[in-house]
Amino acid sequence: MQSYYIQSGTEQTTLELREAPVPEPAAGQVLVRMRAAGLNRGEFIAGHGLTKPGAAKAAGMEGAGEIAKIGAGVAGLKPGDKVMGRCGGAFSEYALMDAREAMAVPPKLTWEVAAGVPLTFMVAQDMLIDQGRLAAGGWLLITGISSAVGVAALQTAKALGANVIGTSGSQDKLDRLKACGLDVGICTRKADFCDAVIAATGGKGVNLVVNNVGGSVFAECVRALAFQGRLATVGYVDGVLKAEMDIEALHAKRLTLFGVSNKLRSAEQKLESLRGFVTDILPAIADGRIRPVMDKVFAFDQLPQAKAHMESNAQLGKIVVRMRDA
What is the mean pLDDT of the chain? Predict the structure, then answer.
């Protein structure tokens, strides 16, 4: 089979298309004939921690397809079932998936949409529900809102009945996101949005911030928080890993700061998030209340171009690769 491999250097990651053997599912695994796979920015950023320097590894983290073979001990799944979920090596003709992670593809979803759902919306569930405790009527600020995670967080927040403020360097993207329910758009790439956030919230600040950008806006995010507000750090595309901390604000406003990453989580902890997603968000995607936003679908042979498109910051929503025979 053909499979893309990714290697991380000191400043960038590179992709190589290789011939590889079709893997055999071990106990508790299923072999999936991949139909589509989603791109995730963290995998392609050198130094982000998801792709470490050293030997190249099979690329891809999520996708959708048909089960081709099941491993020992797998119950409730069979060859031919349409599934989506997290899986290593997703940019391949075949990939292995933990059977516990395999979710049935809702009938209304195309392969491309199904491939782009799992990671972004499970991250949104972690940030907004599990840790963020965002309630109906509350206020959410999303920096860099046009990213796949940013758009998923916007759609999830609106399904929860919350109000959403988003920042982006593109006014066009902010205007387009009004169709997804964006309440307030702030066109900026700088740490200068606090005053507008405070004004939009009647002087109170937001209950939750999702920081997709990184350290360059961290202090401004803290300033924009309301009393007992919460700040989720999910990305650092700006490459800034250090930031000033206002200890007085942290103390006086009783703030909560948390990270959103699966890097050090156990398999059981990851499954707990998956179960939450299946309960809290997947039904809304299945029945059409949430319609995941697809930015662009590339052919399998165009994965390098898809990567370049993501790195150009031109996207609005999810970028997906479609396999040749999908």
Answer: 95
Sign of CA dihedral 19, 24, 26, 31: positive
Task: Supply the range of the domain harboring residue 31.
Answer: 2-117+292-322
Contacts of 299 (CB under 8 A, 6+ apart): 321, 322, 324
How many CA atoms are closer than 13 Å to the CA of 258, on its beta-carbon side? 16
Are 64 and 90 spatial neighbours (Cβ–Cβ below 8 Å)? no
Query: Same domain, yes or no, for 209 and 107?
Result: no
44/298: higher pLDDT: 298
CATH assignment of the domain containing 50: 3.90.180.10
Tokens at residue 186, please? Answer: 């702030």
Q: Are both 243 and 316 inside the same structural domain?
A: no
In angstroms, the CA 6 to CA 49 distance is: 13
How wide is the angle at C-alpha 10 spanned by C-alphas 189 and 94, nearest 5°?
A: 90
Q: What percent of the chain has pLDDT over 90?
A: 92
